[in-house]
Amino acid sequence: MAKKATTLFIRDNSINLLVMKGRQIDKWASTSLEPGLVSQGLIVDEDGVAELVRQLFRQEKVSTDRVITALSGHDSLYRIITLPDVPDAVLPEAVRREAKRTIPTPLDEVYVSYQSVPSMKGERRVFLATYPRNSVDAMIRTLRKAGIKPYVMDLAPLALCRIPDLPRSIIINARLDHLEVMVIADRLPQVIRRLSLPGETESLEEKLPLIAEEFTRTFTFYNSSHMENPLDSTVPVFVCGDLAEAPDTWESLVAEQGNSVAALPPPIAEVPEGFDPDQFMVNIGLALKELLTDKEGAEFSVINFNALPETYLPKHFSVARVVIPVGIVIGIAAVVFGAVLVLHTRAQIDDLRPRVETEEGHVVQYQRDIASLRGEIGPMDDTARALDSRISAMEMRRAEIAIDLREIHRLAHAITPLSLTEVVHRVDRVIVEGRATDCTYIYDYARELRNSGRFSAIRIHSFDRDNRQYDFELDLSK
Fold first, then answer.
1. Which domain holds residue 460?
2. Per the domain annotation, does 7 fall within a domain?
3. Burial of residue 444 (number of CB atoms within 10 Å: 0-12, 13-18, 19+)
4. How far is the CA of 162 from the CAs of 187, 188, 287, in angstroms?
5. Is 450 part of a structural domain of the chain?
6. Do both 427 and 300 map to the same domain?
7. Is residue 235 domain-shared with residue 277, that is, in the same domain?
8. pLDDT tens-digit map of 308-344
9. Terminal CA-CA length for the chain
10. Does residue 379 carry a pLDDT above 80?
11. pTM above 0.85, yes or no
12. Could you read off the pLDDT of 113-170 as tens digits, one per residue?
C-alpha cells in the first residue's frame, strides 16, 4: 500500500493543503487569505487563520493527525559549516558554538536545526539552518487552535530544493513580493538567497531586471567561492512561482550565462485535471520528506531534517506509564527492606563526608577557572564574528566588481573597432581608458554602458586624437 503524506503550507496570501499517496496526488485544496492575516511568514491573526485551516480540513475530510508543515523561510539563514571530527555526543554543543560565531542573529531569537552531510576524513560538515522563534511559536499555536497535530516541519526553500532529481541545478522562485535563488551542488543547497521585491510595481515583468541581476549576482558569488568546480552553462535553471506563468521571460534572466531554463518539474506520476503543480510546489516538496527513498541512482537533495523544535515534538507513548503502578507496589516492599540497611549506610556516609567536602572545594575552583576562561573567550568570539561579517561583505563586493568588469568588457567587445587599455575599479567609481578609430564608437560605448543600468552616471573625462586613433577616458559612477 502506498505511503500517505498530508502537507499544509500557509503563505502570506493563501493556505494550501495537499495529500499524496506515493507519487499520486490524492487530495488538494486552497483558500485565499485577506491581507494582514499573515505578514512575511508571521501569522498575525492566529484565531482567524486557525478557523480557515479547520474549515479546509473539514471540507476535504482530511485527518488532522501527522501533518507536515513549513515555514515561509523569511528571515531564515543557511550555512554549511566544517567542524573537527567530534563524537556524536558533543556534536550539538559544537554546532551551537559555531552557529553563535557565524550567525549574525542572537541564538535566543531563533531555532536551530542541522544535519551532518558527507565530508572528508577527519572533519565533520554540517548543514545548518536558523529560523525565527516568533514565527514558529505563532504557527504552532495556530495549528493547535485548529486541531492540527504537526509532527514534522520544514522550511519552504528546502522543500523546493528537494524536488529536482539532479545533483546540480539552480532554482528561481519569484513571486510578486519576494524572490528566492537556490544553488544546489553535490545534492546540497549550497546557496539560498531570499530578498523582498519592491511593492511599488504591480507586475512581475517590471521586476525582471532585478530578478536577472540577483540571479547573476548569486551565480558569480557561488563561483567566486567554488573556483575548483564552478557553475557553467550546463547547469539547468528551473523556475517556479509567478515566474512559471511567464515562459517568454525566462531566457532574458540567464542571457549572460546561457543556461537552459524550464519550469520546475514535480516528481509526480501524473497531473490530475484542474491541479496546478506550481501553486503546490512547496507542498510536494514537503510530501517528499516522507515519500522519498534512497533508491539507487536517485539524486534528490540529501537535506531532510525535522525543523520542528524539540519542545514541540509529539510525546510518544511510554512503557513507563504501564509499569509505574507495578513499580509502586514493588517500591513499598523495597522500602521495608531498605530500612534495615539505613543504620549501616549512615555510618558509611559519615566516613565519606570529609572526602566529599574536599572534592567540593576542587569543583568550586574548577568553576572559577572555567568562568575566567569564558571571560577571555568572549572578546575573541566578538572579534571572530566581526571578521566574518567583513569577509562576507568583501565577498559580496568582489562579486559586484566582477559583474561590473564583465559588463564593461562585454560591451567593449560588442563595438569591434574599440579596445580597452586600462580599467580601474574604485569604491564608487570606475575609470575606463581605451582607444577607438572613430569618436562615434566612443559615444556608442558610453551609451551602452549607461543603458546597462549598472552605473548612475557616465562622463567622458578626456578625448584625444593621435594619428587616426582616439584615446579616451570614461568616468563611471556607481
1. 407-477
2. yes
3. middle
4. 9, 9, 10
5. yes
6. no
7. no
8. 999 898 765 343 444 444 455 455 544 545 554 555 5
9. 61
10. no
11. no
12. 999 999 988 899 999 999 999 999 999 999 999 999 889 999 999 999 999 999 999 9
Domain membership flag for residue 339: no
CA 448/CA 364 separation, integer angstroms = 72
Domain boundary among 301, 316, 331: 316
Is 156 part of any domain? yes
Residue 237's domain is classified under what CATH number?
Answer: 3.30.420.40
Same domain? 174 vs 250: yes
